[in-house]
């Protein structure tokens, strides 16, 4: 694969991820229920993680991959904690 094709593909992926981030932000802000807001937050952190990965590929720096890993771990824990809060009304029993 040639360098210009890879650069344009990464740019196209980042534009599409930006549009998906706008849709997830809309769901996070205007979700009719709390479950919709949590789903919007989960989609937002996954998209942010993918955006960091594509940016890391573009600039070829390992720091972005580590940041994406941290965002993935923290986002998963936050989603589980919020889901447990919605189910039981408390996070720590």
From TrEMBL:
InterPro entries: MrpF/PhaF-like. The keyword Membrane applies. Signal peptide: none annotated. Its main location: membrane. Belongs to the CPA3 antiporters (TC 2.A.63) subunit F family. It is a multi-pass membrane protein. GO terms for molecular function: sodium:proton antiporter activity. Keywords: Cell membrane, Membrane, Transmembrane, Transmembrane helix, Transport. This is K+/H+ antiporter subunit F. The keyword Nucleus does not apply.
């Amino acid at each position: 694969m040639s360098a210009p094709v890879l650069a344009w593909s990464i740019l196209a992926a980042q534009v599409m991820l930006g549009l998906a981030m706008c849709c997830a932000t809309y769901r996070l802000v205007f979700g009719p229920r709390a479950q919709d807001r949590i789903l919007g937050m989960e989609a937002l952190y996954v998209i942010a993680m993918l955006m960091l990965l594509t940016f890391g590929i573009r600039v070829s720096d390992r720091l972005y991959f580590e940041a994406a890993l941290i965002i993935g771990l923290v986002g998963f824990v936050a989603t589980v904690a919020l889901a447990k809060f919605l189910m039981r009304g408390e996070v720590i029993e």
